[in-house]
Amino acid sequence: MIKRLFLILTLCVFFISCATVSVFVRPDWISTTPKISGAVMYVGHGISFSEEGAKDDAYKEILDKIGKDLGYEIGTQYFRQLMSTDSIESLSTEVSDHYVYQETNGEWHYYVLARTSAKILENSRSQSYVELLQREDNISKKLSDSISLYKENRDVDAINALLEAIVISLEGDVNNPDYTPDFLLEKVINYAENLRITLSKEAKESIGVTVKVSRTKGLFYPPVNNSSVIAKYSMMDINGDIISSTVRCMTNKKGTFRFKNTNPYIIRSGEIVFSILLDSNLLSKIEEKAQEGFLDSLYNILEEKSVAYSYDDTGRFSPDELLFAIALYDTDGNQIDNPDFIEEVKRYFSTAKVADFSFVIAFGEESEDIYYDLLNTYPEYRYYAILRVGVTDFKQYRDEIYARTEGRVTIVSSSDEREIAVQDSYMVGSGHDSESASYDSLLREARIIAGRLLEEL
Question: Please, are residues 202 and 218 in contact by the beta-carbon 8 Å criterion?
């Protein structure tokens, strides 16, 4: 009997101990918020030296979290209702579980698990918060695109995706600190700093170079494909003035492209600067919305990464083998003298850094006549560049006289009279009389012919 009583008491103590221990076993939802279809779950936690104070803080945290998802504060309106009824009818919110315990130091911990209808939550959100969520979702997609592009070694495209994310971020508020313009710009800077441009030139070409874009880090410096690069250089305009021009290039899968300038109006000796080209439209949008100087650090890096290529194009002909001969005519076919015409051609060539060729006045009505005269007078030259320009017509419009000139440039071999190149041109000038109109038209023609000659030289 005594043994049976002892066994019963032992079992009772065991079960009571288990029951006591179970009180202190924390439920899973405290550390891992459960996911339920059609609902949004919230966990609130309060700490205080009184159980009531801990409970108040836990319920306030629930309301703060729901308010954050709604986009506006709801604690003032719903605190008493939630505390007294464990529910908020209008939001279809109800408290589904509690967990309370007291530390040995006297502090109370109060946990609350609440659920809210996902559909009602979505429908109750403020318009501004809906826009914020959509904004953050769009930024998230751009960040994902950027990562994918970077994995494909398309670093410049990855940067452009980040620039798109910055544009979106500048449209309004974001809650995620990783989606702010400053944080996104840091990512852009990191990508840009990891880029470099290198050049390699073949000796046989005067203006030809292989351009490579790669990373500064990584095994064997991975090439960057599909990268936009802009080549900037100086060239001549129609008036004989120097202007800047650009060519947009794109790297292949090896991260390279072959640059060979085909613009005949390029300055014959100078530099071509290669720079990483980002989406200018995106940069402009960012400059419009961001604070002044926001992109300066990015621009500084792009400038530092630029590489200059020096060149010296000697051209097809040397001054020792090519002579320029100029013949000017009036409307009757008579030869006229205009030293400024020759000087204008020389000025154009000098500005374009063309070799210092010799010029002479040509005599003859036809190119053939001029050719034989040059052959007899200057037999040491292998080629003659014959420039024949004539005033062909006058027109009056109101108080102005307009003169039309037509020209032809023929480069001829002195050995066999073979025409190597032929260029035709025309120009219209104006003045208060026929003489000033002719003069203006001839000077304009000189610049046109000089430009056409650059194509052949």
Answer: no
What's the pLDDT score for residue 415? 87
Query: Cα(387)–Cα(403) distance, rounded to whole angstroms?
Result: 19
The single residue listed with the structure tokens 């005599």 is: 363
Q: What is the pTM of this model?
A: 0.71
Residue 17, judged by CB atoms within 10 A of its CB (0-12, 13-18, 19+), counts as exposed
Helix intervals (H) in 357-433: 367-377
Model confidence over 402-437: pLDDT tens digits? 999 999 999 999 988 888 888 888 899 999 999 999
Cα 313 to Cα 120: distance, rounded to the nearest angstrom: 73
Among the three residues 123, 146, 179, which one is the final residue of a domain in this structure? 123
At residue 33 the predicted structure's pLDDT band, cuts being 50, 70 and 90, is very high
Amino acid at position 174, single letter: V
Tokens of 167: 């544009």
Sign, CA dihedral 138-139-142-147, equals negative
Mean pLDDT of the chain: 88
**pLDDT band, residue 17 (cuts 50/70/90):** very low
- Judge if 149 and 233 occupy the same domain: no
Which domain, by its residues, includes 171?
A: 127-193
DSSP code for 176: -
Question: How many residues appear in the chain?
Answer: 457
Place of tokens 């990783």: 178
Strand order in the sheet with 242-250: 242-250, 228-236, 269-276, 307-312
Pairwise CA distance, residues 241 & 234, whole Å: 10
**How many structural domains comprise the chain?**
4
- Do 305 and 232 fall into the same domain? yes
Q: Quote the CA–CA distance of 321 and 325 in Å, as a whole number.
A: 13
DSSP state letter for 291: P
Tokens 């003489």, residue located? 435
* Sequence letter at residue 18: C
Looking at the fold, whether 341 and 291 belong to one and the same domain comes out as no
pLDDT tens digits along 360-381: 999 988 888 999 999 999 999 9
Q: How confident is the model at residue 24 (pLDDT cuts 50, 70, 90)?
A: low
Tokens of 184: 């996104």
Contact 382, 413 (CB under 8 A): yes
In whole angstroms, what is the distance from residue 318 CA to residue 312 CA? 14
State the average pLDDT over residues 234-241.
Answer: 84
